From TrEMBL:
GO terms for cellular component: cytosol; protein-DNA complex. GO terms for molecular function: phosphorelay response regulator activity; transcription cis-regulatory region binding. This is DNA-binding response OmpR family regulator. Residues 123-222 bind DNA. It comes from the Bacteria. Residues 123-222 form the OmpR/PhoB-type domain. Pfam families: Trans_reg_C (PF00486). GO terms for biological process: regulation of DNA-templated transcription.
């Protein structure tokens, strides 16, 4: 899930629509609401956040350094001012990157992936048996051959891979794919997506790589 903080509702709704087209969940806040949410949100919800995008907010209302006390997700400033002084000021506040608007939504996703890659010191993909699962929106590969997937199934596979070695609950998967505040979609839709994903992976691999246990959740296995 991507969290966008901006005082303008039109802006947050716009990003929500754009990220949704890419199969990425998005939640929008005004700065005051955001501060309250960060302080009170369960750890499970914060772990589902892929990045924080900070737009037009009241000065001093968002502290990237304090935000990191609760989340390790990248903090990126969206700037409408094309000048060096403003850019340096934003970096000094503690953000991980500054993106000047207008910008294509795919560039934002690419920058988020690059920051997370550097932070994790990985190669941009997770190898689990014959599966190579990328974190930048590309389809996974099985034995070196691409395996096209619908965007929701691909995002679920990416999320499972990013939590390799740990079991994640249905709620965690739902929050990561649809967002914490999406009340229009039933949480049980996760089971449907995972069922379809398992069938496709089983056909290509010859076995089911998604281990599931009732009440405990899912994890990828070799």
């Amino acid at each position: 899930m991507i969290v966008v903080v901006d005082e303008r509702e039109l802006v947050t709704k716009g990003y929500n629509s754009l990220f949704d087209r890419e199969g990425v969940a998005c939640a929008g806040f005004r700065s005051g609401e955001f501060g309250e949410w960060v302080e009170s949100a369960p750890e499970e919800d914060l772990r589902s956040v892929r990045a924080f995008l900070i737009g037009d907010c009241n000065e001093g209302s968002i502290s990237p350094r304090q935000l990191r006390d609760r989340s390790k997700a990248p903090v990126i400033a969206l700037s409408e001012q094309n000048n060096l002084e403003n850019t340096l000021k934003l970096f000094e506040s503690g953000v991980d990157d500054v993106i000047r608007k207008p910008v294509h939504i795919r560039e934002i996703l690419a920058r988020i992936s690059a920051i997370r890659r550097r932070a994790q010191e990985d190669t941009g993909f997770t190898q689990i048996g014959a599966m190579r699962i990328f974190m930048d929106g590309r389809d996974p590969e099985i034995d070196g051959q691409p395996m096209p997937l619908p965007r929701r199934e691909r995002r679920i596979l990416e999320y499972l891979a990013s939590n390799s070695g740990r079991r994640v609950t249905k709620t965690q998967v739902f929050n990561a794919i649809y967002g914490v505040f999406d009340e229009e979609v039933e949480e049980n839709v996760v089971e449907s997506h995972i069922s379809k994903l398992r069938k496709k992976l089983r056909e290509r691999l010859g076995h089911d790589p998604i281990d599931s246990k009732r009440f405990l959740g899912y994890r990828l296995v070799v």
